[in-house]
Amino acid sequence: MRCSKAQFLIELKLDNELPKEKGKALKLHLENCPQCRKYEAEARKLQQLLSTLPVREFPSWLHNSILEETVKHERKRMLNSYIVRWQTIPALIAIVLSLIGGWALGKTAYIRVNPLPENASVIYSNQVSQTDSLNLVVFGESTLMEDLFYQISEDYK
Amino acid sequence: MKKEQFPEFLKANEKRIYNYLLSLLGDESDTNDVAQMVFLSFYEHIDNIDESTALSYLYRIAHNKSMTYLKQKNRYVNFEPQSFEQMQDRSNKGNEKDYSLLHSAIKELPPRLASVIQLQYFDKLSYKEIAEKLGISVKAVESLLVRAKKRLRKKLMKDRMEGRV
């Protein structure tokens, strides 16, 4: 048996966890190996030191304090989840309002730049009955075709 | 693990974690502070912790929190006169000195090795029981214990050679 193996078994022996069949082989090794006997003596000392190490009791006030803290933590967590839940409503309202506001602002600005003629509804109703392609280009007073013609006429001038 | 299991888990493990923290920190009031932090941190993540490895996880939290606490504490030097009164009397020779060395040796162990030592010597558990508690095999417990004791012995021998005993 190698010393490393024997030292491993010595630890098991001191902990009363050594299988009987290995006990004999270890005993034989120990009889012939002073180094492992020294190791056993040292291991036994450490064992004694560890077994007599004083064990302190857990303070009861600390136990209660931890439990109280967990209750507080749980309450805080619940409150946070409610806050998160309620925060979504004003956020949604703000999004909807900003969309409506943006649409209204855009519409007003567009009408100011391109004011509708007084008879816009008549023009539009007349044009609706015309071809689809014309309907497509007509949009209030300003049309793509008009812009194009305006640009060409300006170039000729 | 469920949150409802926490009080029972606390009751079962508070003493061993307290003693482990005491060996890491060496001071009772620090241990009280860190013990509270450890168990609260465990509680915060309890939903994600598997019951079989809960104790190993708790030891790891205890080790990490203690190291962070010591690092933060070492940044500030306390010059209050009370702190001098609390200092250990180095001239006092006896068993207590051996324990302080042993505590410092345990302090240097990684949490995995320290946990098996704690369970064996503080809780007097068998290898099989330790294996069940930590969710590992008996062979792994044997190996961890041998490694832990080897390290402890090495550290104690080193201290002895340096004349601290």
Characterization of the model:
- The complex is a heterodimer of chains A (157) and B (165).
- Chain A contains 7 helices and no strands.
- Chain A is mostly helical and 157 residues long.
- Chain A has 3 domains: 49 residues, no CATH class; 30 residues; 37 residues, no CATH class.
- The N and C termini of chain A lie far apart (112 Å).
- Chain B is mainly alpha-helical and 165 residues long.
- Chain B has 2 domains: 87 residues, Rna Polymerase Sigma Factor, Chain: A (Orthogonal Bundle), CATH 1.10.1740; 74 residues, Winged helix-like DNA-binding domain superfamily/Winged helix DNA-binding domain (Arc Repressor Mutant, subunit A, Orthogonal Bundle).
- In chain B, 73% of the residues lie in helices and 0% in strands.
- Chain B has 8 helices and no strands.
- The longest helix of chain B is centred in the C-terminal third of the chain and has 24 residues.
General form of chain A: elongated
Total number of beta strands of chain B: 0
The rounded distance between the terminal residues' Cα atoms of chain B is 45 Å
Distance N to C terminus of chain A? 112 Å
Tell me the fraction of residues in β-strands of chain B, as a range: under 5%
- CATH homologous superfamily grouping of the largest domain in chain B: RNA polymerase sigma factor, region 2, helix turn helix motif
Gyration radius of chain B (Cα, Å) is 17 Å
- Which architecture of the largest domain in chain B does the CATH hierarchy give at level 2? Orthogonal Bundle
Q: Beta-strand percentage of chain A?
A: under 5%
Looking at this protein, list some descriptive labels.
heterodimer, A: 157 residues, mainly alpha, 3 domains, elongated, B: 165 residues, Rna Polymerase Sigma Factor, Chain: A, Arc Repressor Mutant, subunit A, 2 domains, 8 helices
